[in-house]
Amino acid sequence: MPITLPNDLPAYDILSNEGVMVMSPGRAATQDIRPLRIGLLNLMPKKIQTENQFARLIGATPLQIEFQLIRMSDHESRNTAADHLQSFYRRFCEVEETGEKFDGLIITGAPIEHLPFEEVTYWDELTRVFAWTQSHVHSTFGVCWGGMAMAWHFHRLEKHLLDHKAFGCFRHRNLAPASPYLRGFSDDVLVPVSRWTEVRQDEVDAIPALTTLIASDQVGPCLLQDPCHRALYVFNHFEYDSTTLKDEYDRDVVSGKPINVPVNYYPEDDPSRAPTNRWRSHAHLLYGNWINEIYQTTPFDLNRIGEA
User: Any catalytic annotation for residue 237?
Assistant: First the structure.
């Protein structure tokens, strides 16, 4: 079954050309089925790139997905055209006012790692989002800074600044092969990483409510499960395109910023050679497993989401 996207959203043509099944809202309305409602709270500056990445993974499952794009109410993006935001995004305050509910919500990262959480301009509204998920979202997936922000809000799990950027593709260990979220995962997983902060394993272990599913000896915890809040927190980037790290590296080189060649990304660490995507299959497994787990556990009646 396909993901439902507006016909004129850039992702519609991009994913169609890649062979991903997409469906217009009009076609979806004629099917006698309740699609899963998955929201994307997009905090990234380049919103089109990010929505494409997540739509690609969500749209690869055998279930019909109604994909909703959401943004913060008062934070204005300077890197995405206003007409795109106007056409395809809803402000969180509008979603909140309707009282509608979602089977799943992805909260993306944001390039504001150096700031204490409470100094982020939209932090107060984001804490409202976190509280709202507990009664209006069946399962929430926090990604990179979004995951760290959720873990701080719910558990006071610290994020720590690194003295250099964790940047490249790092080997990770599958610590919970029996987890439904890791069905089909290898014991050893390569994951793209791009961040200036970390959470520390000993501090995660000190919080009984959190379970580490995937971790790296080099860059620490990657995927945490928080059953009490029906949430997953992933601090690295399964969703990245093949060239995302290259684009970040090239951008910093051109601007004269100090940046290391991303680790274990280019063949023989040679930036003149094209990178090879070695994480795509695990990306599809992770998000496909998340969608499947939602499908198996979410109530048919969306109004019952959040009931004790």
Answer: yes
